[in-house]
């Protein structure tokens, strides 16, 4: 279990001290400001964040509050590093969403134990979350995750006035595939298709869900019409280039019918309406001969 620790510290000496203590047990990376930390976490999720409280610009407390208000970063434990020993100053750390804190000057043994405790808790949390929210066959998210998360993502997009897209894809003539090749080969096909879809969605905020037997849903925050068109066309191309043989298909290989809906500025947070609208577009793709993409604005 080799965890990644992000140290948010603007002082070079303080960072070097922390790095020396932790680097033999963990991968240690650094940001020098709150804004840099937020940008870093948009593309890469550390296991634990060590956050200096006092920094120029966005301080550690405000940075933590921003992270805790974002779906993709809210579960990252934050350990504050502070020179304040007063109870009310430490209370502010807890109120900002911190999981723990250490006092400067940092004691090596204390830091190792507290980081180790958060790494262990995070590992257990991820294991539990995987059991609840991950499809056992394909290893992408399952429908329970969709039920839990979609409305939260939509609400966040509405609050921030950002774009949002939802994609629904169905493997064409999959029953014929199972009948011809057998269910074990069908399972392997499902796993391969799920992997291709995941590869097409590398952003941390995107989520790929196995919605039904051979149906997949992709949640795509901050993706507008242009982004949705780009991603769906790329997905269609990736599936075609995989050349998964399908004797029961007129195309000769596995293909996808894809339906997508988007909003450049979310106003509707009804998750059922979004899913229904995506399903309607998927139906139109099937009616058009399958191996098609149909999208519309919601």
Structure report:
- It holds the Pfam family GGDEF.
- One of its GO terms (biological process) is phosphorelay signal transduction system.
- Its cofactor is Mg(2+).
- InterPro entries: CheY-like_superfamily, Diguanylate_Cyclase, GGDEF_dom, Nucleotide_cyclase, Rev_trsase/Diguanyl_cyclase, Sig_transdc_resp-reg_receiver.
- Its EC number is 2.7.7.65.
- It is built from 10 helices and 10 strands.
- The radius of gyration is 23 Å and the shape is elongated.
- Helix 2 packs parallel to helix 3 and helix 7 crosses helix 8.
- The two termini are 43 Å apart.
- A 5-stranded parallel sheet has the order 2-1-3-4-5, with helices on both faces.
- Helix 10 links the parallel strand 9 and strand 10.
- It folds into 2 domains: 128 residues, 3-Layer(aba) Sandwich (Rossmann fold), CATH 3.40.50; 155 residues, 2-Layer Sandwich (Alpha-Beta Plaits), CATH 3.30.70.270.
- The chain has 298 residues and is an alpha/beta fold.
